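User: structure tokens for this one?
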Amino acid sequence: MSYEFVLRLIGMVVLAIGGWQLGTYLSGHLAGATDDSIRYVLILSLSGAALGLLLTPRFTTKPLNALRRRIQESPPQRLLAIFAGLVVGVIVGALLGIPLSQLPDPLGAITPILGTVLFAWLGISIMMMRANDIAALFGNRQPASDANAPWPDDRSILVDSSVLIDGRLEDIAQTGFIQGQLVVPRFVLNEVQHVADSADDFRRNRGRRGLEVLNRLRKNSPVPVRITDMDIEDVYEVDDKLVLLARKLHCPVMTNDYNLNRVAEIQGVQVLNINELTNAVKAVYLPGETFEVHIIQEGREEGQGVGYLEDGTMVVVQGGVHYLSHDLLVEVTRVIQTAAGRMIFARPA
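Assistant:
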């Protein structure tokens, strides 16, 4: 039996008793006949029981659950600031309540209470506005392993499961180009673990690689990596959770998923795509430049040979079929950018 059901029963009993008392009062003042008295008591008692059964969660469990989620999602220094502001405000209000209580009634009874409430609200508001400054003043620093600790929104990146499975994030992190910290939500980690437990060998190996990459990042990466338990209630798709959490935290999402990329951009979330980064840092060759490439296979057109640069760029060499399995000095004729990446067309130099 859940505690919500117990509270519903308690609310039903309490409001049924209240309806019975109200029915008894009304029957004694408004109804003269016995039948009318019983009717008032019965109708109001049943109405009170029904209202108690239906409305009790709206005044008990739902506000408490909302308050609990709010507390879980709030940074610790914010909660500390609220508590400190409340204490300071109540103390100031109590001190000022002493002279205010000397005023003639009814001001002497009302103004101390109003003053305490006012200064408590002012204390909380001021402390919340200066929470980060106060934390910095006292040198408050949160350990990187704390899943619910706050982090600066403008220096954090939410990581998608596709990036962990891809594996290149580890090399990018080692270069030092990522400024800030990588944040992996618990639901993303659960998705990678689900892939690692797949019955399909290919998916299982990809999932295990993602878990290994995350483990090495946490141990050896110069970029801080944290696992956060923050979640989006009443949303079940991982991609939707990730986009909504990024909007809530005002931070970008790192992903290789094309669909997630587009959905995030539509909703105004900045996307860091490793595939786009890879294409951006590939070596740029202009027509007329020369370089060596190893021809490994025939091309689609007659006489073409195909090779690849170290960064994966495809090089199509006209007449290169005669140099299969050999290194060839080629001259660039044109460069095109496709959805799959950059392609270079060349001819033997």
